[in-house]
Predict the structure.
Amino acid sequence: MRSVCVFCGSSPGADPAFEAAANALGDALARRGLRLVYGGGNVGLMGTVANAAINAGGEVLGVITRALEAKELAHHGLTELLAVDTMHERKAAMADASDCFVMLPGGFGTLDEFFEALTWTQLGVHAKPCGILDVNHYFDPLRVFLDLAVEKRFVRAEHRAMIVDETDPEVLLNKLAAWQPEHLDKWLDRSDR
């Protein structure tokens, strides 16, 4: 594991613990010599995790659309900033540059990016682990929903189990580094799609 993609909000959110977690994650990535890959913004949790990694001496790759860059939302203090034309290109570039994915609190875009990466693992497009860094129970309702989806047989239990879910960034990174797609052949059985 060399590069970790972090999906998170372009807002700081209502709880100061969200920014604290983004700071802790960015710092942990840099201390471990892991490159942060993220959406290239300078605002909200995105800016926080990037600044924490930079301040700890880490390498940071930001991928942003030209439209967002034109709105002056791009972080110009990164190791590398890649501007692309579309959100599809942005997500693909972030996925290609990353060895695993972490979701911090965020909104629609954060959820979209994380679940696309997770689906790509499920479908065998890549075999990269996906983890959630939960902060103050933000993702509790999501866990309930995912368990309901398993119960109603829209998600298989082994697919649900692909998500690494932790509250501590160090523990999460350790588990992502140790993750092995042990049952990938079974996951690739497409009979439930």
